[in-house]
């Protein structure tokens, strides 16, 4: 499989930021700036997104293998993995398939369960819509759910930025990732096997992976803490970059 594109900034213990759907490493810009003062930050583009070539079809497990391959090529043997939403699904696969890599895990606005039949059908519909009508179809379907309900009033420029980010993504990559998410494994029963420190971060108004589900996920993990980011929806890291990154840094400093 072709190598992933990535950005790398800073030095220290490696922290790997895995982006959500349908974004790229650019969704991590505020975190890359702040974390790289103390850490070696690596932010890959998952297949087809940002600068990485499309792999179609693809599975979430194959995405994880590609991240592991990238880390191996960078001679990174242990790191903190930070997975946002779809990046969280990839992180669970990394833990299953390349457990030696993970010194700690941050699950941001994500969940361990897989999709209902209705959810899977929605993923297939979205894949068809972007191939027929372009990436704008993904923005039309998703934009209203990604940020807190009052975002268009209080953060109109962020709404525009997120819209742009989705429209810039390749339709083929969106379709492939959407179908990959539909087929992802249910990781709920393996949460109890996680033996590394975990931080669960979630926006207080995240309607895609809500706080109640995030707390339930954390309670199934032996060493997990939860931090709810106020006044943030699903894209908590972009809506409240300072609070999100400070919570992440505070947790990181306890371990590395
Ligand atoms: C994401 O932010 O990566 C997506 O909302 C994940 C999903 O659709 O399940």
Distance between the termini: 32 Å
**N-to-C SSE string, H for helix and E for strand:** EEHEHEHEHHHHHEHEHH
What is the count of DSSP helices, taking H or I runs of 4+ residues?
11
Strand order, main sheet: write it out. 1-3-2-4-5-6-7
Mean pLDDT: 98
**Helix percentage range:** 40-55%
The radius of gyration computed from the alpha-carbon positions, rounded to a whole number of angstroms, is: 17 Å
What is the number of beta strands?
A: 7
Give the overall form. Answer: globular
* Backbone structural class: alpha/beta
Sheet with the most strands, sense and barrel status: 7 strands, mixed
What does this structure look like?
The chain is an alpha/beta fold. The protein is 46% helix and 15% strand. The protein has 11 helices and 7 strands. It has helices at residues 29-35, 60-73, 86-97, 117-133, 136-146, 151-154, 156-168, 171-182, 211-219, 236-239, 241-255; strands spanning 6-9, 14-18, 40-44, 79-84, 102-108, 198-203, 224-229. A 7-stranded mixed sheet has the order 1-3-2-4-5-6-7, sandwiched between helices. Helix 1 links the parallel strand 2 (14-18) and strand 3. Helix 1 (29-35) packs across helix 11 (241-255), helix 2 crosses helix 3 (86-97) and helix 4 (117-133) packs antiparallel against helix 8 (171-182). It is globular, with a radius of gyration of 17 Å. D-malate is lined by residues 20-21, 85-86, 181, 208, 234. The site of D-malate (MLT) has 7 residues, from loops.
């Amino acid at each position: 499989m072709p190598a992933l594109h990535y950005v790398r900034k800073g030095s220290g213990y490696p922290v790997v930021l895995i982006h959500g759907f349908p974004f790229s490493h650019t969704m991590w810009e505020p975190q890359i700036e702040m974390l790289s003062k103390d850490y070696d930050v690596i932010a890959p583009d998952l297949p087809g997104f940002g600068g990485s070539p499309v792999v179609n079809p693809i599975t979430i497990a194959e995405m994880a293998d590609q991240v592991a391959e990238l880390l191996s090529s960078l001679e990174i043997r242990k790191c903190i993995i930070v997975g946002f939403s779809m990046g969280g699904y990839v992180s669970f696969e990394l833990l299953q398939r390349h457990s030696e890599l993970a010194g700690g895990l941050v699950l941001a606005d994500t969940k361990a369960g897989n999709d209902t039949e209705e959810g899977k059908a929605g993923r297939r519909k979205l894949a068809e819509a972007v191939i027929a009508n372009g990436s704008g179809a993904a923005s039309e379907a998703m934009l209203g759910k990604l940020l807190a309900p009052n975002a268009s009033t209080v953060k109109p420029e962020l709404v525009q930025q997120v819209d742009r980010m989705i429209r810039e993504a390749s339709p083929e990559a969106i379709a492939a990732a959407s179908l990959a998410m539909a087929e992802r494994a249910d990781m709920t029963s393996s949460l109890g096997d996680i033996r590394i420190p975990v931080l669960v971060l979630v926006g207080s108004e995240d309607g895609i992976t809500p706080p109640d589900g995030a707390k339930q996920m954390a309670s199934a993990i032996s060493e997990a803490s939860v931090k709810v980011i106020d006044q943030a929806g699903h894209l908590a890291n972009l809506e409240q970059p300072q609070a999100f990154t400070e919570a992440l840094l505070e947790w990181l400093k306890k371990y590395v």
